[in-house]
Amino acid sequence: MSAMLLALFLVFGQLSLMAVGGANAVVPEMLRMVVNEHGWMTASEFTALFAIAQSAPGPNVLVASLVGWQMASLPGAAISLLGICGPSSILSFYVARLWQRFRDYRLCHAIQRGFAPLSIGLVLGGAWLLAGIANTGWSAWLLCAVSALIAWRTSLHPLWLLGAGAVAGLLGWV
Amino acid sequence: METHNIPTRRELFTGFFGIGIVGFGGVLPLVHHMLVLRKGWLTDAEFTELLGLGQILPGPNVVNLSVAVGGRFHGASGALLAFSGLLLAPFCIAMLLVSLYQQYRGLPALQQVLAGLAPAATGLIFGMGLRLAAKLERSSWCIALAVVTFVAIGLLHWPLLPLLLVMVPLAVTLAWHLQQKEPT
């Protein structure tokens, strides 16, 4: 049990420090570690957990706690959430303090400008990878494309799209 | 410093708790609304600065922001309160959902719901990525970096760490270099 908790903390702690541009950027790496490297679950189990995490409010890091729950129930969930938020939070706590004294806008601007294309590549690449697993037929691809289009072009609340997906699934359309 | 409403520790916790409980997918607009417009804890400029900092550091941006804001007003304990306020409710709801899932995962209806939920959830991420991509500067180096990262992760399934170790220094050096050349 405690070996599993340690393993969960190490996996998500690493991901925390690699999450350039937010939590969605590390979803494919999470899948690679959890499914291929550790063999904790299958890829489709992972996408089910991912879909559940997206249906809960809050930042998109909850998928980590669901993986933790699957492996080691509540302690696993708590450790995984701490793992994925802890290291980056501690870093940002100290950087925010130093920032008041050592701010260098030009360096910061260069970092932000350089990171922008990387995080877009990571988010879209991750979405592509997940879509390959989650979309089992043409109707699922269609649903995914419609949801992407609406999320991109309108400011409709995401919950409507998730709800529509759930209903389409329940009706057997997907 | 300009005039501020200084939140108490309790207000930090409840403020971020409120964001956690209503925020789906993108909580950033809500955070801005609460911190700047409603509570007046930060000015617009300070918000932009702390957000920028949260974005260049690894980790979930909103979580980083909550830690920076909490820390600014009440040090480590403030950071911890803002952090746990933000994550407490979403964590409990996610736990509730996943325990329902484990209880009823054998039901065909639930499998069907998930079969529809997963593509819709993936679509949301595409949508967010496209929204960001539309705002990306239209220069060849930017597009090239985004495409290389997309291909490496999405099509070639490369591990993230070695990719970042190459791409991050490359991207930041490029951006820095271009910035030096541009007239300001």
UniProtKB/TrEMBL annotation, chain A:
The keyword Transmembrane applies. It is a multi-pass membrane protein. Its main location: membrane. It is found in: Cell membrane. InterPro entries: CHR_Transporter, Chromate_transpt. The chain crosses the membrane at residues 74-95, 115-134, 140-173. Keywords: Cell membrane, Membrane, Transmembrane, Transmembrane helix. Belongs to the chromate ion transporter (CHR) (TC 2.A.51) family. PANTHER family: CHROMATE TRANSPORT PROTEIN-RELATED, CHROMATE TRANSPORTER. This is Chromate transporter.
UniProtKB/TrEMBL annotation, chain B:
The keyword ATP-binding does not apply. Coiled coil: none annotated. It comes from the Bacteria. Keywords: Cell membrane, Membrane, Transmembrane, Transmembrane helix. It is found in: Cell membrane. The chain crosses the membrane at residues 12-31, 80-101, 113-134, 141-160. Its main location: membrane. It is a multi-pass membrane protein. The keyword Membrane applies. InterPro entries: CHR_Transporter, Chromate_transpt. Belongs to the chromate ion transporter (CHR) (TC 2.A.51) family. This is Chromate transporter. It comes from Vogesella margarita.
